[in-house]
Amino acid sequence: MCVNVPMHLLKQPITVATEEGPDGFNVKGGFFRGNTMKKQARWGSALLVTLFLQLMAGCSSLATPARRDIAMASAAMNQAETLHATQHAGFEMNLAKEKLASARAALAQKDYQMASALAKEAEVDARLAQGKANAAKAESIRNALRHDIYTLTAGNDPVGP
Question: What is the distance between the alpha carbons of residues 86 and 103, in angstroms, rounded to a whole number?
Fold first, then answer.
């Protein structure tokens, strides 16, 4: 339904009458055009100011992403250590520790791109060590369950090899 409204009425409240929609329910619409343009101008200028401030903050600190990446890698290392990943994936854990130390050194030298890249690699290595530790624990649980099933079936191995 299209309604032509004279321009002098657009500054007043306009209410659309209730009518039955195609699905049988009552549809009621309405809108107010009083200060809409002023509100849009205020929101637009606020949005521009916010975007400008975010852009300036992003350009002024290139170290922030590198620090964030180092913190994420450090958290991944801590999680891997709580899973005792060193026992199951010692090589990956040592590699992650070395890369994390190199990332911290690169950050100290203000080589933020290198620090970020090394931190991301350290995080990936730590996550790999976590995965290997989880796989080893799952394998251990599987073997224990197989043994229990074997014991319960009085030596008959129903599970197979």
Answer: 20
